[in-house]
Design goal:
This protein is mainly beta. It has one helix and 26 strands. Strands 13, 16, 18, 19, 20, 21, 22, 23 and 26 form a nine-stranded antiparallel beta sheet that branches. Strands 1-3-2 form a three-stranded antiparallel beta sheet, with no helix packed on it. A two-stranded antiparallel ribbon has the order 4-5.
């Protein structure tokens, strides 16, 4: 008997109860017929789990088992104790009861199979995408240039991550503001209203901003930012240089992000503030410029 017990898994402590065979040759419920020394008897095996009854579970085959205290036990139903016991080198992946035991750093694919977890992307908000799947290049400058390129297009973000869009309330679709109901505007950096040019923009060099969405009424294919004498910045279809707002700025940082500190600022305190230019050139605004295709057509991954 000593040798028999030594072969039992350490996970279980088992006890045997012996009962006589019934007159009809059967055994009581929860007993099984066995032959000992040539005599048929009924035997009941009572298991106790190492770690207590909270380590007991019912597997997918309705077998009552115990889960090693060193393994992860996931219970689907507290009443029936239906669940699964993941191995030493596994973790439960997915949402119970539809998950499964997988190697560490795994995810479930559409077929429910364990696959290696994709490498995280540096694109904020896309941790499960392939590297560079939707990573937009951030304009980062140096001692000579502010990081922008003439002729290229950018999406503009405030330091809090909100876009520079247009439209605050009904009747103001052409006023630039934080957020706004006109979003995802490609802004092209130009040398003059007639020549966007190419090459880096030097720190504090003037540039003009072309809005490639254009007026909300569709009257022109593009427009320019315009803000004179402290008024809110709006879009204009004029190509006259005296009607346009000219920007300049230098490379800077905000919360560990590259930004361009431009010669503009908030027009007034508001939940969705507008943009303007002030006579005091020390009043500036930090904007993040994310490079995007001027056509608006992305070809992922962006590298």
């Amino acid at each position: 008997m000593k040798n028999f017990f030594s072969t039992l898994p350490l996970l279980l402590l088992s006890f045997f109860l012996i009962s006589g065979v019934r007159a009809d040759g059967g055994c009581p419920d929860d007993y099984e017929p066995v032959v000992i020394d040539g005599e048929a008897v009924c035997e009941q095996i009572i298991h106790h789990c190492i770690g207590g009854e909270e380590r007991r579970y019912l597997d997918s085959h309705n077998a009552r088992l115990c889960c090693d205290p060193r393994e992860q036990l996931v219970i689907y139903d507290e009443v029936s104790r239906a669940g699964v016991c993941c191995g030493f080198d596994q973790i439960y992946t997915g949402i119970k009861p539809n998950g499964k035991c997988c190697p560490p750093k795994s995810v479930l694919n559409a077929a429910g199979a364990c696959i290696p977890e994709p490498l995280p992307s540096s694109c904020q908000g896309c941790p499960a995408q392939q590297p560079n799947a939707c990573q937009l290049g951030v304009a980062c400058g140096n001692a000579a240039n502010n990081g922008l390129q003439f002729g290229k297009c950018y999406q503009l973000l405030f330091a809090n991550g909100h876009q520079l869009g247009r439209g605050v309330s009904y009747g103001t679709p052409d006023m630039y503001t934080q957020d706004g109901y006109i979003q995802n505007i490609p802004y092209q950096i130009c040398k003059t209203p007639t020549d966007c040019g190419t090459g880096p923009v030097a720190n504090m060099q003037d540039f003009y901003v072309k809005d490639l969405v254009g007026p909300a009424d569709g009257s022109a294919p593009f427009g320019w930012s315009n803000s004179l004498n402290g008024a809110h910045m709006t879009i204009t279809t004029s190509n006259n240089i005296v009607d346009l707002a000219h920007f300049n700025g230098r490379t800077s940082c905000s919360s560990c992000k590259c930004v361009v500190q431009v010669s503009a600022s908030y027009a007034c305190p508001a939940i969705q503030p507008g943009i303007t230019f002030w006579a005091n050139k020390k009043v500036t605004l930090k904007l993040q410029f994310l490079e995007i295709p001027c056509t608006g057509k992305f070809n992922f991954p962006i590298v």
